[in-house]
Each structure stands twice: as structure tokens, then as C-alpha cells.
Amino acid sequence: MNRKIGLIGAISTLVGTMVGAAVFVLLGPLVDQTGPSLALAFLLGAIPAFFGSAYYIQLGSMFPSSGGSYIYASRLLSPTFGVLAGLCMVFAGIGAIGMLALGFVNYLGFYFSSLPVLTTALLTVFVFLLINFFGIRFSSLLQVGMVIWMFIALVIYIFVGLFGQLNGDFAAVDNGPFMRGGITGLFMAAVLSFYSYAGYGIITEIGGEIKNPQKNTPRAIVISLILVTLIYMGVSYVSTTIIPIDEFIGFSASIPMTAKLFLPNWVVNFIAIGGLLAIFTTLNAILLVIPQELYVMGKEGVFSHQFTKQHGRFQSPYISLVVIGFITMFLLITGLSETTFATMTIVGLLLGGVLMGFSALKIFKKTPELYKNSAVKIPKPLLILLSIFGIISSLSFALLAILDVPIVGAMVLGIAVIAIVYCKVKDINNNKFLFDEMIDDFQNEVMEDYK
């Protein structure tokens, strides 16, 4: 597949994935736990993401391929673990699509109270399936435009709120103790806020579509994490100083409703549209990225070759796209809640992250030449330490999420058992595509890219 996404497109995909509906709609529950220390909670929540991003950066620089989760785990652990890692990403993607479709309906409900929930959610999924059918270049350009709008909306909110207080246009509200819920409340909010960063490694799924991926993939991850952290902290500070917290907690659309207090109506409307685009950018990014897993596994003969079919003109993997879209639609029709879909996303991404951490620990034994010639070389002791920390933190957060919504744990266990039995029956560990010698071939291909 031709590489069609530059650094700006890669950053837009990541920022659009991480800055979703939560920052526009769901700040209230976090504020209830933290009070004015919400910005600190988002900073603390970003720490595991920055540590965990280390092995994504290293792996993405060494293996600039689409379907990154499957590729990393299959080459560095085993083909079976590769399938499990790939299915974790697909599971997370399906959860994200369902969650965002329902989140879009709920956000619109602030303006239009009589919308049919299921019909609107299904239509939303269908529209974005259609957008991504027209190919990666089209959906990437659309992603850039939507992220720019959303970013400008949030920057206006932050800067007018900050400078308005500094210039004395309005006084900051005294919202009581800095840590409303004490250390415990701050810690729990930090754990929840980590969910807002959970998609930081998703760009590695389309490494094969990125121009100069050995350099642009790590740059995109670092720049995006910094931008997103600053956005969350800025929004949190303004939101907790502009209005009494007890009033803010009750807002159904946090940022637009707060913006009404200090911004003209046309700017409030601009920000409200930014909230819709925040949902759209995440939904578009997921549908841009996740089908690549099925495409790559189909290409290597693990799953049906039908998943590799691409539209002749737009080069979109339309079979993979349609399968993911229609599974999501089916789950929406069954009545799964927004919370269940959200937990699917978090658990899938975090368990995939656990496998990526173990994959990173195998780099020095299995692919020393790739590491030696990589555009990014995180020192071995540091990478091992960060990978272990990433594994522990990702697994811990995943277990907390499963305890909160046990049905997701049952779904993950069922998929894992079916996948392991499938791999055993198909004997994919001896698949001609997946011999250990494939690593040598892959190294040669990547070395050609470096040259």
C-alpha cells in the first residue's frame, strides 16, 4: 500500500483519537473527585502513557508496518500472540466505534432532545464507514481539517479563560480545597483520566501508510502526547476556576455550557461544533486504523485472504472495513451500553499494550540488527525498565476496568480461547509466512527503507 500520510496527518490521527467526547462532556464526574486539582490529575494520568509510549516509539521505528500490534507480537513473541494482539486492537476499535456513536447521540441530545438513539447511532457508523471507503488519503485530509477546528475551539476556550482572569475581565472562582476528595480522590481521577490517553500507540497500526515512518511515527507520538496533555490541563484549569464546581458537575456538555459564561454566542457555537468534531475525529481515526489489522493478518494467511481486498480506485480495505462496521452495528442493536463499549476500548488497548511491552523486551534477542540501525534507539536498560512499567500499569488498569464491567472480561476471555483454539487447529506457528526466518526477510526490507 502506498504511503500517503505525512507527519501532520499522523499527529492529527493521534490527537483526534485521544481528544474525544470526554473532554467536552464528561469532566463533571472527575471534577467531583478532584475539585481544582483536576489539571494535576490529568498530568498524573499522562505519566503511564509517556512511559508506555517508549516501547511503541521503539517498535514503530524498527517495524514501520501497518497492523503494528500483530506484526510486533508475531515476530517477537509468536504468531499466536500476534493474532491475540491484533484481535485486542480490533476489539478495542469495535468498542470505540460503538461508544462514539452513542456519545454523538448523547451530545446532540443537549440540542435535540427527541433524536432516536439507535437509528442515529447506526447512521453515524454508516456515514464514517462510507468516508473511510474513499481511502486513507481522503479520510486523513478530513481528519486534519476536523482536528484543526477542534484544536482552535479548545485553544480559544483556554486562552480567553486564562487571559480573562489575568486581565481582570472576570474573577477566578474560589472552589475550596485544592484536592476536594483528598489524595484518594486525586489518585482515582488520575486513573480515570489515563483512559483519555489510552490510544497513544494506535498510530503504529498504520506505520506502513506513513511517509518516513522510522522518524515520523516516534515524532507523532511524542508531539501528540505533549499537545493532548497541555490541552487537558488547560481545559481543566479554566473549567475549575470559571464557575462554582457544584454547578459545573451538573453540566451535560461541560465545555460549551461553561463557555456561555464568558464567550459570545458565535464562539460558543464554534466550540460546540468542536465538540461534535472531537467525536468525529476519534471515530474517523479508529475506522482509518483498525481495519489494517485484519488486512495484514489476511495478507499473511492467518485469516481469510478476503480481508486483503481493496477497492480498485480508492485502495481502501473495504472487506475489513465492512466487517468491523457491521459487527459494531450488531452490538449496537443488541443494546450494549455506552459504558460497556467504552470499557471494551480501554481493555482492548491496554491488553494490546501489555503484549507490546513483552514484545519490546524481546527486541535485543530477536532483532538486534534492526535495533542497531533504528532511527530511534532508546538505551537498553531504560527501554527494559519502561517496558516493565508499561506492562504493569497497563495490566493494572485493564483489570480495574474489567472489575467495573465484568461482561467485558467475559468477552475478552471468550475471544482469547477461540483465538488460541483457532491458531492451534490452523497450526499457524508453522505457517510459511511466519517462520523465524521471516524476521530476517523483514529486517532486509526495513534496511532497504532506511537506505
Automatic annotation (TrEMBL):
Keywords: Cell membrane, Membrane, Transmembrane, Transmembrane helix. InterPro entries: AA/rel_permease1, APC_superfamily. The chain crosses the membrane at residues 7-31, 37-59, 80-104, 110-134, 146-166, 178-200, 221-245, 265-290, 318-336, 342-361, 382-401, 407-425. Gene3D superfamilies: Amino acid/polyamine transporter I. It is a multi-pass membrane protein. It is found in: Cell membrane. This is Amino acid permease.
